[in-house]
Design brief:
Blueprint lengths: L13 E9 L2 E10 L2 H5 L1 H7 L10 H4 L1
Antiparallel strand pairs: 1-2
């Protein structure tokens, strides 16, 4: 089942990707993991997940 059921919180990851496509093929150029403000504000959670201390919040537009 896809989507979000009322009253449930699902785990997910959001990424921002830059890719190239042309007549001869396609390739991934770069990617960044998007972390919401709630994650960045919880440094213990970030540390437990292996997120470096110097990572700061950035919008998806800034990451792109």
């Amino acid at each position: 089942m896809y989507g979000q059921a009322p009253g449930r919180v699902e785990n997910c990851q959001l990424g921002v990707f830059c890719a190239y496509t042309g007549s001869r093929g396609r390739t991934l150029i770069d990617r960044e993991l998007y972390l919401p403000k709630s994650w960045i504000a919880d440094r213990d959670r970030c540390r437990d997940a292996g997120v470096p201390e110097d990572v700061e919040f950035a919008t998806k537009q800034v990451l792109a």
